Amino acid sequence: MQDRDFSKTLKAHATAVERLLGEMLSSAPQKGEIARPERLLAAMRHGVLNGGKRMRPALVIESARMFGGIESTALRIAAALECIHCYSLVHDDLPAMDDDDIRRGQPTVHKAFDEAAAILAGDSLLTYAFEIVASDETELDAARKMQLTLALARAAGLGGMAGGQALDLEAESRTLSEGEITVMQAMKTGALIRFACEAGAIIGNAEAGERARLVRFGEIIGLAFQLRDDLLDLVADSATLGKAAGKDAARGKGTLPSLHGIAWTEEKLEALVAEAQTLLAPYGEKADMLVKIAAYIAQRNH
């Protein structure tokens, strides 16, 4: 697959997810709902329909495709995951958290609306994600829906992303060891990326060993994603990133690149991509897109 084809496929996934989320977040109440408050809905749409690479949805779709999963089902689970991811960004940007004014080149939700609207928008996106998984429109048997619900809850909650954010906030008041940084980042960033890969295996009804292989793949590229993010925070500018640059260093937060340097980080990223490629080698051409995503994650400039 050529780079042009890779970019085209990635864009197609992002467009499909964006379109589906736009339809789901329409003004018409769904069955069982009473009403959809206009301002809350606008805040939710601002937090979700604002571009972005949609990397996590792409991982769901391509992992499911590798195991022959139903594409429309994978797209819905991808949309659910993106709701979780975007809720986390809306809340992370709040003054009580990272206190950011810009996200993806636009005002953050609490700046475009207010803090209360941002909190409620995040809450609503979080709960809506599980509604998507459970709904009749998501064509999966009850057992696999339950597996997805459990895996997504654990990836997003206390022992995953939310817990990682708590550890990240603690890092502003004390110096973390390398081991603590690794655990924090595996939770805050890696857990949802790991879920994205595991979800594809669940959708495709993969065997336990194959599911475990995709979990490991997700862990590898989750670490690569965070390493690249931390490296960009050191070397890129805010215009390139579409968000504030250098904020970790300004707050004294420890990262692996700040501990080991740029050269070490770049070597580590190369090693992670090589491990990811080796892990998926048994799947041959079916894994081409996932392998290219791993390389892209490690090399991206924003």
TrEMBL record:
Q: Name one Pfam family in it.
A: polyprenyl_synt
Q: Which domain of life is it from?
A: Bacteria
The processes (GO biological process) annotated in the record are: terpenoid biosynthetic process
Q: Tell me the GO molecular function terms.
A: metal ion binding; prenyltransferase activity
The cofactor required is: Mg(2+)
Keywords tagged on the record: Isoprene biosynthesis, Magnesium, Metal-binding, Transferase
Q: Which GO terms describe its cellular component?
A: cytoplasm
What InterPro entries does the annotation carry? Isoprenoid_synthase_dom_sf (IPR008949), Polyprenyl_synt (IPR000092), Polyprenyl_synt_CS (IPR033749), Prenyl_diphosphate_synthase (IPR053378)
The family note in this entry says: Belongs to the FPP/GGPP synthase family.
Protein's name according to its UniProt entry: Probable farnesyl diphosphate synthase
